[in-house]
Structure formats: C-alpha cells, structure tokens
Amino acid sequence: MHKVLRFLSICSLAMVFFLAGGGVMRARSADADYDALRRFSQVLDMVEQYYVKDVEQKELIDGALKGMLQGLDPHSTLLSTKEFQEMQESTNGEFFGVGVEITMENGQVLVVAPIEDTPGYRAGLRSGDIIVAVDGQYTMEMSLSEASSKMRGKRGTEVELLVLHKGEQRPVTMRIKREAIPVVSVKARELEPGYHWIRLTRFSGRTTQELLDALRDAKKNDIKGIVLDLRNNPGGLLDQSVSVSDVFLKDGVIVSIRGREEGNSRSYSAKSQADDVDVPMVVLVNAGTASAAEIVAGALRDQKRALILGERTFGKGSVQNIIPLPDGTGLKLTVALYYTPSGKSIQAEGIVPDFELAWEAPREQDKSDLSLREQDLSRHLEQAGKNGKSRKKADDKAAEENEQLLARDNQLRMALQFVKTLPALRQLR
C-alpha cells in the first residue's frame, strides 16, 4: 500500500510540474509512461531504504528533477525559491554579487562575459575563463544556478574563486568583494562632433528607455554616426533586444524563434516610429556578445542597417522560459531557438562580423612620450569670461578622455573610422 501511495504521489507531482509549464500532453503509450514512473518509484524507494545516509524525499526528488533538466542542455534547470527570486532581481532590481554572466559547458562553469564596472570585471574575469571552484567547492559538483547563487551574497562580503583564465595552464585564486550590481545598462559619449559611442552592457527591463534617453541627449546636436558597442554584453530580455533593434530599423524581421510546439514559434518585426534613428552605424561585437545582444547584431547585419566589426560572438541562440511553480520555485526551460532575419541559427555558431578585427591590449604609454599642449604652457592665454573658461576646461577634459579611450581600444578606433566613411562607401556602391 505504501508503494502504491508513493507511486500515485509521484504521478501527481509529475502532473503538477507538467501543468505548471502550460504544455499539452501528447498521446503516448500509457504502459510506457507508467513503466517509467514505476521504475523511478522503485529507485526512489531503494535509495530511501538503503542509502548510507538518511535523505528527505523532497531533496531526492529535487535532485532527480535537476538532473533530468541539466541532461537536456546547459540552460534548463530547476530554480530553488532563492534562485528564482535572484533571477527576477537580476533583470528588474538591484542585487549583490560578482557581476558575471556564466554558462555550463562540458560540466564546466564558463564565463560568458563580465558586466562592465562590476567587481568581477575589475578583478580581471574575462569571456572564456573557467570558474573551477567557488569558496573551495568545485563547480563540477554544482548546477549552473547553484554556481550563480553561490557567487551572490551580502554587500561587502568576499567570495573566493578558483579561475582558469582562457589560454592559461594553471588556475589562480581570486578573492572578490561583492557589490551592488548596477542595472543601468546604457553608457554614451560623443567621441567627435556628431559621432557617438553607445555602449549597451546588458538587456534589462529599462534598456530601451535608457537608450532613447541617451539618443535624445545626442540629438540636441546633429548625429552623424553611431558606434553601437555590444562587446561583453551577455544578453538578457528578449523583448528589450527586439525594441532596441526597432529603434534603428523602420521595417523588416528582427528575429524569429522556433520551437517544437507551434505556440513557441514567433517572428518579431520592426515598425516605423517617430523616434527611429537613421544614421550610419557600426556595431562592435566579440566572444562575450551573447544571446539578446546577438539578436541585435544579427538583425542589423541581415537588414544591412549596420556594419558589424570585431570578433565572432558567443553563439547562445536558445530561448528559455521562466515558469513559476506552485511551491515558489521556478522552472527554467529551453523552448525554442533564435533565428536571424536571413534564417540562420545563432546557436553554437554566433554572429561572424563583416570585418574581423581582434582586440589588441594597449601598450603602456611612456610618460616621456606625452605630447605638450598649449594649455600645459605657463601663462597660456585663456578664453575671455568665466563661463567660457569653465566650458573650455570641460571640453578639453572630454577631448582628453576620448583621446585616451581611443588610444586604448583599437576596435573602437577602427569603428569610428568606418562610421565616418560609410556614407562615401554607400555612394560608391
């Protein structure tokens, strides 16, 4: 009787998880389904009776569910109540941690991209690094969500990571202090009169609005060209990638998603809007450009709206649905794949730039080689008027910052040159 009740409870549990996903049961052999559930019940019963330690049934079932999902692909998993809340915070609110997007590959936790201006970024984590252990626990023993959760914690606390940097032979220990991870996802500055650099660090709930705000400020003067920087952008929300792409497109397909079920297949298209931006564009990408960021790059490339420059992107082209479950946990399940307007899948392929250019680490600048400017001379002439003087200092400071930024970044330098020459190239074509 005990085993019968256990079997019925497992069947009920399976049905609850199934209904929570909103699916429709396919016609299958009833005998095959019951045989599989009976086998699971038998194994569960033997573990509870004979395993060396006493383990609660809920813990065993949670482990079985996680194993089932992780066997599907690196991104599907069962989220605990805490992990489910953390995932919601990461796209809508503030959270505390290292600030790095990770994935699971061949049982290893791999860095997709660090979020700019976060502890992980400043500590030297980069795309392609392998996180071997977190606080002394090897990540091969964890699920992806568990590894992510362990790297989060209270503000000011430290986490110890054992990291194998890409291309290195031996791992190094990194102690990183957790901080608030900023949800602000757009940075912008004018590199030269009329030419703007807009950096998208991620796709969170307000990315499109932040982009529109930055463009509104830029439009106070004429916009001649834009460098859209998606390097080390780990992605985020699908709807934000679509609306960001729509800002730069008047019509045409942005992305299509195709799943096994017809209801999981959909195409997203651009619509003409009053605030559409139609100026020459270059998009910067690299190996840390993933998921939603790849959607934007693929749409702008395939619609011949922008030149793509940099390195081949990460290749994370799958769609995950986050499904809340009745007990407060969540199911993260891959339901479809992304396809660019030309019909190409991003998954494991990535976006190949129109112009491939590897990033070069900047050389240390010799102080003796610094150029001398008029403002460095004693008794140099100032512009008349206090306001004029302040404005000149601000302009000089901005110009100096831009010069340093371009000097350190060969890809950005090349992108600026391309965006300035695109109108002439179009005329030649």
The domain tally reads 3
- What is the averaged pLDDT score? 85
What is the CATH superfamily classification of the largest domain? 2-enoyl-CoA Hydratase, Chain A, domain 1
CATH class identity of the largest domain? Alpha Beta
Poorly predicted spans: 15-27, 365-381
Helical/strand content category: alpha+beta
Please report which band the strand proportion falls in: under 5%, 5-15%, 15-25%, 25-35%, 35-45% or over 45%. Answer: 15-25%
Number of helices: 11
Helix content: 25-40%
CATH topology of the largest domain: 2-enoyl-CoA Hydratase, Chain A, domain 1
The Rg value, from CA coordinates, equals 26 Å
Task: State the end-to-end CA separation.
Answer: 80 Å
Biggest β-sheet description: 6 strands, antiparallel
> What is the N-to-C order of secondary-structure elements (H for helix, E for strand)?
HHHEHEEEHEEHEEEEEHEHEEEHEEEEHH
The count of strands amounts to 19
CATH architecture type of the largest domain: Alpha-Beta Complex
Shape: globular
Describe the model:
The protein is an alpha+beta fold and 429 residues long. It folds into 3 domains: 2-79, no CATH class; 81-181, Roll (Pdz3 Domain), CATH 2.30.42; 186-356, 2-enoyl-CoA Hydratase, Chain A, domain 1 (Alpha-Beta Complex). It contains 11 helices and 19 strands. Strand 5 and strand 6 (137-138) form a beta hairpin. The longest helix has 23 residues, at 386-408. It is globular, with a radius of gyration of 26 Å.
